[in-house]
Amino acid sequence: MKNTKKIALLIAAFSISTASQAQLGGMLKKAAKAVATDKVNNAVSGSGSGSAAGSANVKAVTLDWKQYSQTPAITMETLLSGTQISDHGNLRMNFYTGTFIPNKTASGTPVAPLYKNEGTLRTKLFVNDKMVKETLFNDGDYFTEGKQVRLQTQSIANSDMDLKEEGKYRLDFYAGDKMFYTFDWEVFKKVDTDPYASSSTFWYAKGPWEKYAYVTPQTTGNFIFGFYMMHTDFKPNANDPRKETKSVIWYPELYKDGKLISVPNKQTAIVDKEWKNFQSSIKLVGAKEFLKIAELADGNYTYKVKVDGETAPRAYDFAMKGGQIVQSARQDRAKNTDPSTLIEGWNNFFWLERK
Predict the structure, then answer these.
(1) Is the N or the C terminus of the chain less surrounded, counting Cβ atoms within 10 Å?
(2) What DSSP assignment string belongs to 289-324?
(3) Cα dihedral sign for 128, 133, 134, 136?
(4) Assign residue 224 a region: left if phi > 0, alpha if psi is -120 to 50, beta otherwise?
(5) Taking a C-beta distance cutoff of 8 angstroms, is the pair 101, 175 a contact?
(6) N-to-C CA span, the chain
(7) Which DSSP symbol is given to 285?
(8) What is the DSSP string of 205-233?
(9) Where are the domains of the chain?
């Protein structure tokens, strides 16, 4: 009887061991399959072999890249406003506008709205050439008959990241199975040696914000010039150490063929530790009304901005032809040879490069 019980116990133990091995084998097979799937997805999306913090587990969708004759891009205005680097070390990448991104699959099926979380639109952030974050844009919507789309995520945690490293930053934009656009900038930090400072480390960005300005028309057609400023002073106001903004005087001037043609137009800006956008209209000498873009005669122009505290004026060249601003080579789709770095202004922002 005792032997019978022993035999029964041995059979039960063997059964449990066999079942456990079978379960373990199944788990190993599933894990291997998952790794293989990740490798395939990474190969398709170009993410490399490593996993990144905050990586979005998305499935690549094959889109109809012939849907539009224009190549897809992200508008420069939303790149500069949507990529925010705070002085206390937070990077936010959200609220971008994409143009001419296909909204149909290769088989002609409409892509579901972004909030359906299909992984159609996403970005990958690289810091010093290492991928550190992937963001899935699961909100937003199409507009302008689908030719534009808002890249937006509802969760701040998805689009935000604490800065830990100085250096070169790159944001690659993906739609479905293709990387179609890239945006570069640099991040630096300053350390305050004051032991009483409320914050000892100050993070800031450099790059396109200081390089580009733009001209855009109001609904009235007025010539509106815009550019970006920030400051890197720990204590911009010696009389109030708690104040972080800085009052800056700047003077816009318009030249034609080297001759000043605008009237003095003193401007005051409240500049912060983050990049902000500042705009101004302008009047020509002898004119009663503000300048409209179409009123400028054909020829070559230079827009200069004199900023108090800066050693030389910021200067931006552009040309007029037939009442229109001639697009720069990087914005002109007929001249730009790299669609992934095209400056997209849609049809209402004309971007000027600083000399």
Answers:
(1) N
(2) S--BGGGSPSEEEEEEEEETT-SS-EEEEEEEETTE
(3) negative
(4) beta
(5) yes
(6) 99
(7) T
(8) EESHHHHEEEEEE-TT-BEEEEEEE----
(9) 1-45, 73-189, 207-353
Task: Give the three-state DSSP class for 340.
Answer: helix
**Residue 258: how many CB atoms within 10 A of its CB?**
7
Report d(CA 171, CA 135) in Å as an integer. Answer: 10
Do the first three CATH levels of 73-189 and 207-353 match, i.e. the same topology? yes
Q: What pLDDT was estimated at residue 242? A: 81
What is the spatial distance between Cα 111 and Cα 119, in angstroms, rounded to a whole number?
Answer: 10
Torsions phi, psi for 254 (to 5 deg):
-115, 130
Over the stretch 299-309, which tens digit does the pLDDT of each residue have?
Answer: 999 999 999 99
Residue 325 tokens, joined: 């601003």
Question: CA 197, CA 220: separation in Å to the nearest integer?
Answer: 48
Report d(CA 349, CA 342) in Å as an integer.
Answer: 13
Residue 28: partners with Cβ closer than 8 Å, 6 or more residues away: none
Task: Answer whether 171's CB lies under 8 Å from 93's CB.
Answer: yes
pTM as predicted = 0.82
207-353: CATH, from 2.60.40, 2.50.20, 3.30.160, 1.10.1670: 2.60.40
pLDDT, residue 164, reads 96
- φ/ψ region of 146 (left if φ > 0, alpha if ψ in -120 to 50, else beta) reads left
Sheet holding 212-217, edge to edge: 276-280, 223-229, 212-217, 350-353
- Nearest partner of 137 among 184, 101, 87, judged by Cα: 101
**Distance between CA atoms of residues 208 and 339, nearest Å:** 17
At 243 the three-state DSSP class reads coil
Q: What is the CATH number of domain 73-189?
A: 2.60.40
* The pLDDT value given to residue 114: 57
**What residue ranges of the chain have pLDDT lower than 70?**
1-59, 112-119, 197-198
**Which residue reads 């205005």 in tokens?**
77
Q: Is 310 helix (H, G, I), strand (E, B) or coil?
A: coil
Convert the pLDDT of each residue in 5-61 to its tens digit: 444 444 444 444 444 444 434 443 444 433 333 333 333 333 333 334 444 556 678
pLDDT, position 286: 96
